[in-house]
């Protein structure tokens, strides 16, 4: 009789273990850490990266003409009476000014730069910033871009056109022997400052 009692308890315990076993296993995550074919790889949080496709072209032209002129004359008759010693005199003068100027400026920048999301605004927009530095033969070229990106402007391959970046600031700096030769000398800079 005692053996049957223990056997029934053992059967109940085994049934409970079988029922609880799948529940314990179900505590694991249903999602795997490895990316799947259907996962969204677009940036969505601070620290995520996205690539900006830079394609910018600007052109500005300005022409200016200015001219003015003036002339004047005066004359004085000879003195009479006690002022007989004053001789007749006349004077005239003229002034003329003319200037012409023109300015044409064209810039084209193309390239790719990967930036990071540094802030997510309350409306969901991303503040992005990134720098790319290239060193070759003693010459350094540094490209820096910052701006605001809307999530809906990010394509499925995690890229965004530079024309869709709001408040975009694109800065290109060069440093090295060639870049230094393209700058004005110190004496020329002082002369231009003074005159």
Keywords:
195 residues; alpha+beta; six-stranded mixed sheet
Q: Report the oligomer.
A: single chain
Strands, count: 6
**Sequence stretches where pLDDT stays below 50 over 5 or more residues:** none
Helix content: 10-25%
What is the SS-derived class?
alpha+beta
Arrangement of strands in the largest sheet = 5-1-2-3-4-6
Strand content: over 45%
Shape: rod-shaped
Give the SSE string: HEEEEEEHH
Biggest sheet character: 6 strands, mixed
Distance between the termini: 119 Å
Give the count of helical stretches.
3
What is this entry, summarized?
The protein has 195 residues and is an alpha+beta fold.
How is this structure best described in words?
With 195 residues, the protein is α+β, with helices and mostly antiparallel strands. The chain has a domain at 41-59 and 104-195. Helices cover 19% and strands 49% of the residues. The protein has helices spanning 2-25, 177-181, 186-194, and strands spanning 49-76, 89-120, 126-136, 139-149, 159-161, 166-175. The chain has a six-stranded mixed beta sheet with strand order 5-1-2-3-4-6. A hairpin with a 5-residue loop joins strand 2 (89-120) and strand 3. It is rod-shaped. The mean pLDDT is 77.
Annotate the secondary structure layout:
Blueprint: H1 2-25, E1 49-76, E2 89-120, E3 126-136, E4 139-149, E5 159-161, E6 166-175, H2 177-181, H3 186-194
Parallel strand pairs: 1-5
Antiparallel strand pairs: 1-2, 2-3, 3-4, 4-6
């Amino acid at each position: 009789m005692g053996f049957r009692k223990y056997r029934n308890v053992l059967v109940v315990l085994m049934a409970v273990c079988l029922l609880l076993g799948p529940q314990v296993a179900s505590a694991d995550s249903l999602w795997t850490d490895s990316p799947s074919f259907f996962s969204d790889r677009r940036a969505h949080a601070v620290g995520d990266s996205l690539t900006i496709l830079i394609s910018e072209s600007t052109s500005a032209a300005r022409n200016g003409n200015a001219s003015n002129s003036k002339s004047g004359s005066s004359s004085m008759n000879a003195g009479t009476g006690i002022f007989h010693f004053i001789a007749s005199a006349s004077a005239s003068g003229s002034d003329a000014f003319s200037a012409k100027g023109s300015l044409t400026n064209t810039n084209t920048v193309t390239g790719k730069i990967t930036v990071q999301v540094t802030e997510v605004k309350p409306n969901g927009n991303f503040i992005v910033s990134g720098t790319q530095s290239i060193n070759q033969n003693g010459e350094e070229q540094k490209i820096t871009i910052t701006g605001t990106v809307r999530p809906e402007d990010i394509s499925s391959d995690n890229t965004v056109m530079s024309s869709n970046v709001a408040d975009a600031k694109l800065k290109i700096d060069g440093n090295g022997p060639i870049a230094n030769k393209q700058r004005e000398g110190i004496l020329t800079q002082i002369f231009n400052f003074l005159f």
